[in-house]
Amino acid sequence: MKPIPLNLLTLYADLAQRVGIDTVPAASVSRRTVGGQRRIYATHPGAVRRQVYLGTEGDEAAEAKSAAHRRAADGARAARKTVTTLKRAGLSGPDPTTGRVLAAIADAGLFEAGMVLIGTVAFQLYPNVIGFQLSSAALMTQDIDLSVLRFAAPRAVDGEPLEAVLKRADPSFAALMSRTDTLPKKFRSVATQLEVDVVTTPGRSLEPVLLKSLQCSAEPLAYMDYLIGEAIAVVALHGAGVRVRVPAPERFAVHKLILSQLRPDRSPKRLKDLQQARELIEAMRATDPDLIDGEIAAARGRGTKWRKLIDAALGKPV
Q1: DSSP alpha helix (H) spans, the chain
Q2: Is residue 72 part of a domain?
Q3: DSSP structure class, residue 114
Q4: Closest Cα partner for 15 from 129, 110, 133?
Q5: Domain end: 71, 88, 105, which one?
Q6: What is the pLDDT of residues 102-145, one digit of tens each?
Q7: 91, 237 Cβ separation under 8 angstroms
Q8: For residues 174 and 189, what is the distance between their CA atoms, to the nearest angstrom?
Q9: How many domains are contained in the chain?
Q10: pTM of the model
């Protein structure tokens, strides 16, 4: 493992403090005459550009909104330069396609409302948090996994279903429906084949949970409540920075240990789970051994099954 230089971690920490603090999103502002009136519009960037009418020229509220959008745009330009600097220095971030999807979800307010990014894409964001380069963070993935608490499904700020949010990043996103689905729990981009899966915490039933506010469903998975129970906010290095929520790295590592033992022996995902868990544990023991060892001990104390799965994974060579 290679430690990330302190100056880059400091720059990243400064970026993380700035991203997501603006209540008004960055947008370009334009004015044009319509029906004899000078009207002000804000255009929001994205795969599908959105134009919002702010009001008429000279109106105090409209001019204030216009100024706020411009200030946010100035801040975004500065943040974009920082992101570029960090990526050129070797810090990890999502690929452009994945980054656009994360940005669309963040812009819709879903991470802020409780949605959590899990899986390999979340793992790719940990090096900048724990201060070490992780070789597994370079692994490519065609999946974005999103999790929500069973009884706390997030609601899109603008009331849009999840499919519409994803189409902001890539208009070719479409729901994948099985014969038993009432609402989709998986979406796929026709253009890139990137898939977005929605999962949730387990309950009495193994049936998909309907998230009517997002017009989708979520697949309940074992141990998901543990994984996302103490999610943290991090910044993905894409564009001007995207604030997302991911599992706490120590819980991610323990969850991967458990998950590896639930997969078939020859499954490639089993080896990937063990590798990601091992790298996170090794890195965290170099920076905060009490945190990771305490989390492993706490998880082992949750019951016989937990202890057996964790101990079996820790005894497995990677």
Answers
A1: 6-18, 60-88, 96-107, 110-113, 119-123, 127-130, 162-169, 224-227, 249-262, 268-287, 289-300, 304-314
A2: yes
A3: T
A4: 129
A5: 88
A6: 999 998 889 998 999 999 999 999 999 999 999 866 666 789 99
A7: yes
A8: 6
A9: 2
A10: 0.88
Q: Is the pLDDT of residue 268 over 90?
A: no
Does the structure show a pLDDT above 70 at 84?
A: yes
Query: Distance (Å, rounded) from C-alpha 262 to C-alpha 250?
Result: 19
Evaluate whether 144 touches 117 at the Cβ level (below 8 Å). Answer: yes
Of 66, 88, 110, the residue that ends a domain is 88
Counting residues of the chain whose pLDDT is more than 90, the rounded percentage is: 65
Instruction: Output the furthest CA–CA distance in the chain (Å, rounded).
Output: 76
Residue 154 lies in a domain: no
DSSP secondary structure of 129-178: HHTEE-GGGG---SEEEEEE-TT-----TT---HHHHHHHH-TTEEEE--
If you average pLDDT over every residue of the chain, what do you get? 90
219 within domain boundaries = no
Domain that holds residue 313: 248-318
Look at residue 302 and tell me if it is in a domain: yes
In terms of DSSP bridges, do strands 195-200 and 143-148 run parallel, antiparallel, or are they unpaired?
Answer: parallel
pLDDT (average), residues 42-62: 81
Distance, in Å, from the CA atom of 72 to the CA atom of 23, rounded to the nearest integer, reads: 9
